[in-house]
Automatic annotation (TrEMBL):
PANTHER family: ATPASE INVOLVED IN CHROMOSOME PARTITIONING, PARA_MIND FAMILY (PTHR43384:SF10), SEPTUM SITE-DETERMINING PROTEIN MIND HOMOLOG, CHLOROPLASTIC-RELATED (PTHR43384). One of its GO terms (molecular function) is ATP binding. Keywords: ATP-binding, Nucleotide-binding. The keyword RNA-binding does not apply. This is AAA domain-containing protein. It comes from Methanohalophilus halophilus. Residues 5-146 form the AAA domain. InterPro entries: AAA_dom, MinD_archaea, MinD_FleN, P-loop_NTPase, ParA/MinD_ATPase. It holds the Pfam family AAA_31. SUPFAM superfamilies: P-loop containing nucleoside triphosphate hydrolases. The keyword Nucleotide-binding applies. GO terms for cellular component: cytoplasmic side of plasma membrane; cytosol.
Amino acid sequence: MASIYTFASGKGGTGKTTVSANVATALAGMGRRVLIIDTDLGMANVGLFFSLNINKTLHDVLAGDVDVREAIYEGPYGVKILPAGYTIKGYQKANIKMLEKVLDQLNREFDFIIMDTPSGINPNIIIPLKLSHYVIVVMNPEITSITDSLKTATIARGYDVPISGVIVNRIENGLSQNLRNKINESSGVDIIGEIPADVAIQKSLSLQKPVVCNYPTSAASFSLKRIAAQMAGIE
Ligand code: ADP
Ligand code: MG
């Protein structure tokens, strides 16, 4: 049975897609069977992130139009990807309530199922949250991002979904002890990853390849692989 993780944050642009897609790829590189699902149905980015040429998508699966296996693609190290589509029409026909069935169908085939989620508080985030075994909160080291992310954490707790920890992303010049304490105190969970602001991430995005493959020795890749190693229980 797969361990199902949701990567979530209150605010947009904290790095959910970047972090979840790279952690999924890194876990696959460690020999784990990994599926990443793009549950950001409105602003789907995962297919672009992996430079996929997509035809059938999660939108079609959630509309009951295609079998889930027709919408799964392969990325680096054999990571499997279930992308959402890019059209408004697809978004409108997709029923997020069908996600539970999708997870039931795929659960036995993977060690990890990682869900990238939208920002905000709406059914498109709440349903993946409820269906997860663990939530990882991705935030930036700014007070607004911290505050918004903690709302997501509170919602997860409300559904009894444990929060594995917080990842602080886009850190410039280190994370002050003061901010680290603030995050720990207000979230009640540990910081499990600290990822620096790194131009290698933007360069990789323009090449549409995960940074852990493209710039494996960059500072961001080091942090991302470390998070994956912790999840895989090898660190
Ligand atoms: P979200 O999915 O939370 O909306 P994204 O993963 O799409 O956020 O990231 C938003 C933007 O921030 C992207 O342009 C991405 O390349 C950039 N980004 C994310 N993390 C970092 C980082 N550690 N260093 C530099 N740029 C980053
Ligand atoms: Mg995103």
